[in-house]
Structures are given as structure tokens and as C-alpha cells.
């Protein structure tokens, strides 16, 4: 464990990492999204998977997602220290060293890919390895600090898990997991841009070229609406695909109408109004975006559960 000594008013105090700090390195909230979407991809696939193998597959996909989080925190420790949202993470807070995070991330990366290959198939394992590489190297090391398109392109890393889950079951890829990928991929920019709107100057202070920094808040609001409008047809296409059904379609229509309405509300606001009320609409849109994604994938899961009973599916 880390044993980092700081001087506080002339008194030496040591901060020692606890188990929770190492869990925090794995970004458990992000990992929960990875686990849920991968689980849906696995369960809606046309090939049944033994529950034990399914549990094992999801466990190692989760560890792969956690490895990505640890490596992201290792590389981003410098900017995490200057952003209020991330300043209390284990590395900037001095509870875990950068070397420990790097070692944990690399170790879990190798373990998760190897074990996923042994438990399911090597195509799924290679897909997981590529996802970790994409998130750490393509997004974190390259795109995040160089272009306002960072979250647009980098969002692919968070969109791969349902494809990996599907690959665990089938050994390949089909149209349905590609549509699941598209749903998450197109959802990611408005989700994160809404966060950037109410995080104020965090990204600017850290030197991260988020769209709010490079193009301004008004342009960001327009981009949120554009991506929300592009997202809706893909959500409906997924609902109309073989893994969808009437329930999924009804949920997709309701969620996308609400999401578009929220984007329109954000577009109509100017910075003075938003700042005066504490960015209330932006925060509501951000929170709803989480419900939006969960709702789509939960509907797919419900459809798969109803299908054997003769109620779900087309």
C-alpha cells in the first residue's frame, strides 16, 4: 500500500490506501455500465450460454473495464489534480501512487483477456484487448488532450461491451450488436457535453480541449441537439431489429422524445440563465441521459425474457 507523507502545519501525516481506493481506481460507476451493457449483449444473443460461463465472461469483461479505468487514472493523474471533479481520486489525493495504478491496470488487462479467452473464445478476448487499447491509447493518451472530437471518437470504447458480450455467446458479430454499439456511441457525446456545460471551467483549467472550451457553450448546446436527433433513428432501428419488439419500440419512442425535448430546452437557454439557476436544466439532462441508456438496454433484456413465453419479439 502507499505510504505518502505530507507536511501539514509542521506535522507529518501519512495517507495510506485502503481497499476502497483500489476499487475506486477501477471506476466502478463506469464499470457498472460496461457490465450491464455487456450482459445484455450476451443474454439477447441467439446462442444460449451456460450460466456459469456467462457469469465468468461478465466477470472478466468487468475486470477489463476496471483495468482501463486504472490505466486512465494513471495517465491522467496530472489533470485530475487540477479538476475539482477528480481532485479526490486516489492518485491526486496521494493515497495511491501512479506506479501502483499502472501495475494494477496492466495486470488486470492481461488477466481479464487471458481468462475471457479460456472461458469463452479468443475472438471475444481479442475484442476485449482491443477495447482496453482503444480506451487507454487512442482516447486517453491521444485524443483526450488533442482534439474536441475526443469524446466523439473515444466514446467507441464505452460502446464496445455489448458487442463483446454478444461475441462471448456467438464467437462473432452481427447487425444487432452493431446497433447496440451505435446507440451507446451516439449517446456518449450529448451525455458528456451536458456534463461539460455545468462543470464550468474544469476542462479549461486542466487544458482538455472539450467542445465547451474550444467552441464555446452555445456551440456545445447545438451539438447536443444534433447528436440527439441523429441518435433517435438508431435507437428505433435497434427496437425494430430481431432483438427488439413492441416493448422495446414503445420504450425507445418515449425515451427519445423526452431526450430530444431536453436537448431543445438546453439549446434555448443562454449562459446567463443557466449560471443563474445553477445549470439545473443541464444537470437534469445529464441525469436523464443515464436513465435513457439504461431504459433501452433494460427493454432489450425484458424482451428477451418475454420471448420464450410468447410475448416478446416481432
CATH architecture label of the largest domain: Orthogonal Bundle
The biggest beta sheet is recorded as: 2 strands, antiparallel
CATH superfamily descriptor of the largest domain: UbiA prenyltransferase
Distinct helical segment count: 16
The overall pLDDT, averaged over residues, is 92
Rounded Rg: 20 Å
Number of domains: 2
Oligomer: single chain
Helix content: over 70%
Strand order of the largest sheet: 1-2
Coarse shape = flat
> Count the strands?
2
Q: How do the SSEs run, as a string of H and E?
A: EEHHHHHHHHHHHHHHHH
Low-confidence stretches: 1-14
Kindly summarize this structure in a few lines.
The protein has helices at 19-25, 28-44, 51-75, 77-80, 98-119, 122-143, 150-154, 156-159, 161-170, 175-198, 202-206, 211-214, 217-240, 246-267, 271-276, 280-306; strands at 3-8, 11-16.
Question: Can you characterise this structure?
Answer:
The protein is mostly helical and 314 residues long. The chain has 2 domains: 18-173, Tetracycline Repressor, domain 2; 175-314. The chain is built from 16 helices and 2 strands. It has helices spanning 19-25, 28-44, 51-75, 77-80, 98-119, 122-143, 150-154, 156-159, 161-170, 175-198, 202-206, 211-214, 217-240, 246-267, 271-276, 280-306; strands at residues 3-8, 11-16. It has a two-stranded antiparallel sheet. Strand 1 (3-8) and strand 2 (11-16) form a beta hairpin. Helix 6 packs antiparallel against helix 9 (161-170) and helix 10 packs antiparallel against helix 16. Mean pLDDT is 92; it is low at 1-14.
Amino acid at each position: 500500500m502507499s505510504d505518502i507523507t505530507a507536511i501539514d502545519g509542521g506535522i507529518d501525516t501519512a495517507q495510506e490506501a485502503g481497499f476502497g481506493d483500489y476499487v475506486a481506481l477501477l471506476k466502478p460507476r463506469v464499470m457498472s455500465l460496461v457490465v450491464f451493457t455487456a450482459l445484455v449483449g450476451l443474454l439477447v444473443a441467439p446462442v444460449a450460454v451456460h450460466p456459469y460461463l456467462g457469469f465468468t465472461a461478465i466477470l472478466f469483461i468487468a475486470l477489463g473495464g476496471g483495468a482501463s479505468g486504472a490505466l486512465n487514472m494513471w495517465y491522467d493523474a496530472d489533470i485530475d489534480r487540477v479538476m475539482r471533479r477528480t481532485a479526490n481520486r486516489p492518485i491526486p489525493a496521494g493515497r495511491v501512487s501512479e506506479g501502483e495504478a499502472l501495475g494494477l491496470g496492466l495486470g488486470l488487462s492481461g488477466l481479464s483477456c487471458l481468462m475471457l479467452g479460456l472461458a469463452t473464445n479468443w475472438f471475444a478476448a481479442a475484442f476485449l484487448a482491443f477495447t482496453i487499447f482503444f480506451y487507454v491509447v487512442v482516447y486517453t493518451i491521444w485524443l483526450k488532450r488533442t482534439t474536441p472530437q475526443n469524446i466523439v471518437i473515444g466514446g467507441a470504447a464505452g460502446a464496445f461491451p455489448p458487442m463483446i458480450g454478444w461475441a462471448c455467446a456467438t464467437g462473432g458479430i452481427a447487425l444487432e450488436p452493431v446497433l447496440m454499439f451505435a446507440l451507446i456511441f451516439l449517446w456518449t457525446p450529448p451525455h458528456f457535453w451536458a456534463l461539460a456545460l455545468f462543470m464550468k471551467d474544469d476542462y479549461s483549467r486542466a487544458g482538455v480541449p472539450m467542445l465547451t472550451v474550444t467552441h464555446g457553450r452555445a456551440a456545445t448546446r447545438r451539438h447536443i441537439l444534433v447528436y440527439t436527433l441523429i441518435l433517435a433513428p438508431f435507437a428505433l432501428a435497434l427496437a425494430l431489429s430481431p432483438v427488439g419488439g413492441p416493448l422495446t419500440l414503445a420504450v425507445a419512442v418515449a425515451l427519445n422524445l423526452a431526450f430530444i425535448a431536453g436537448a431543445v430546452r438546453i439549446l434555448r437557454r443562454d449562459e446567463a440563465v443557466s449560471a443563474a439557476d445553477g445549470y439545473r436544466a443541464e444537470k437534469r439532462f445529464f441525469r436523464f441521459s443515464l436513465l435513457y441508456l439504461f431504459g433501452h438496454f433494460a427493454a432489450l433484456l425484458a424482451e428477451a425474457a418475454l420471448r420464450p413465453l410468447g410475448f416478446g419479439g416481432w
